[in-house]
Amino acid sequence: MERTYDIEAVRKEFPALDRTHNGRPAVYLDGPGGSQMARPSIAAMLRYMEAGGANLHGAFPTSFETEEILAEAREASAAFLGARPDEIAFGANMTTLTYGISRALSREWNSNSEIVVTELDHRANVDPWIQAAEDRGAKIRWVRLDPDALTLDEEDIENAINENTKLVAVGLASNIVGTVTDVARVSEMAHAFGVLVAVDAVHAAPHIPVDRVALGADILTCSAYKFFGPHVGVAAIKGELFENLGVYKVEPAPNYSPDKLETGTQNHEGIAGVKGALDFIASLGDGETMRERLLSGMENIEEYEDALAGKLRAALRETPSVKIYSAPEGVRKTPTVAFRAEGISPREICERMAAEGYFIGDGHFYASTVVERLGLREEGVVRVGLAPYTSEEEVEGFVGSLRSGFSQEPRAKSQERSERPS
Ligand SMILES: Cc1ncc(COP(=O)(O)O)c(C=O)c1O
């Protein structure tokens, strides 16, 4: 059965789209910095808080219910990432989880060890590994970014891995230029030497289907606030590795996975919201099981966003004085587009566009090595990120405003008026 993508129905699921700014509807084009929340996610959080919350392991209903809600969210997250529920751990965010995991793994490293990081990655999948390696006197190897193709140099990856390598940290998709890396191929090279692979799927998870096993990821991380949910980090760690992982934890806390990585009391209402966000994605797909519905939902999202991103890239390429930073045709990409315009700084473009109701980001977005390699560290780039709720009219309006905005004087801050949805 062919399913058409009903953009109007999708938009109704995002209450934040009712916001206006300067009398115009707010257009959210900073999804890579954090998407808007879907109604089922907001509802699940409210439900949890209104029904009476509790901590775990109690002998009373709100404690049982909390355990049940966490178990359901774990099961749904496992279905989302192609993992087992006992491989899923929640945490404050991806960065904090990665610091915890890197500290635990590096207990086994020494001065003969080597780790591999890449120039294309967000620094959250770089610095925790580098700092853990430094603590153990281990060697750090960087994989080069090809600054013209905006892809990783595959030969460099192969050369970086050897019998001393302990871990390769690689991103599935770049949060600044959208390049999707062939992580399954990287894992194949790493596993040939028995090396662990840590995959940052934070930017990929809202845009393309993810499968921990198919990617060969021993560790996979993502963040629910990028996929229409609340600020909660999610890690999927291969069962055997997780069971033997010597995490830093307090003595009375469980010593079994996944609970042992979940230090302190978790964000229960947020985790309830993770399940709600995944219910939203599943509602866009078909299938018998949650995994099938989530995969099909993500395939529909990718197809819709990819067509829209193609139009955005083409329109930006035709805009005088604009230069876009994007991998060539044929390289899989998320709908995230970076650009610069001659004679106007990224910050000024964003300010002018915000006055017109278009909310977009500028800077390096912690993918600071990428902008450094592009020679743009000082001001960074403008980043436009599409989401499942972005309409074609919004993209056309954005390009139109951008083109006319170059010739206008910016509106005074004092004239601005923002109306939050009631
Ligand atoms: C690709 C990528 N990795 C990691 C992170 C860090 O995620 P968190 O904010 O959950 O720590 C981000 C956040 O922007 C990201 O885009």
Layout of strands and helices, then pairs:
Layout: H1 7-12, E1 20-21, E2 24-25, E3 27-28, H2 39-51, H3 61-81, E4 88-91, H4 94-105, E5 114-118, H5 127-136, E6 139-143, E7 145-146, E8 151-152, H6 154-160, E9 165-171, H7 183-191, E10 196-200, H8 212-215, E11 219-223, E12 233-237, H9 239-243, H10 268-283, H11 290-317, E13 322-325, E14 336-341, H12 346-355, E15 358-359, E16 361-363, H13 368-373, E17 381-385, H14 392-405, E18 418-419
Parallel strand pairs: 3-15, 5-6, 5-9, 9-10, 10-11
Antiparallel strand pairs: 1-2, 1-18, 4-12, 7-8, 11-12, 13-14, 14-17, 16-17
The structure holds pyridoxal-5'-phosphate (PLP).
The site of pyridoxal-5'-phosphate (PLP) has 13 residues, from helix 4.
Describe the 3D structure.
The protein has two domains: 7-38 and 291-419, Aspartate Aminotransferase, domain 1; 42-282, Aspartate Aminotransferase, domain 2 (3-Layer(aba) Sandwich). The chain is built from 14 helices and 18 strands. The protein has helices at 7-12, 39-51, 61-81, 94-105, 127-136, 154-160, 183-191, 212-215, 239-243, 268-283, 290-317, 346-355, 368-373, 392-405; strands at 20-21, 24-25, 27-28, 88-91, 114-118, 139-143, 145-146, 151-152, 165-171, 196-200, 219-223, 233-237, 322-325, 336-341, 358-359, 361-363, 381-385, 418-419. It has a seven-stranded mixed beta sheet, with helices on both faces. α2 (39-51) runs antiparallel to α10 (268-283), α3 packs across α10 and α3 crosses α11. The protein is globular, with a radius of gyration of 22 Å. It starts with 6 loop residues before the first helix and ends with a strand. The model has no long low-confidence stretch (mean pLDDT 96). The structure holds pyridoxal-5'-phosphate. Pyridoxal-5'-phosphate is lined by residues 93-95, 122, 124-125, 171, 175, 200, 202-203, 223, 233.
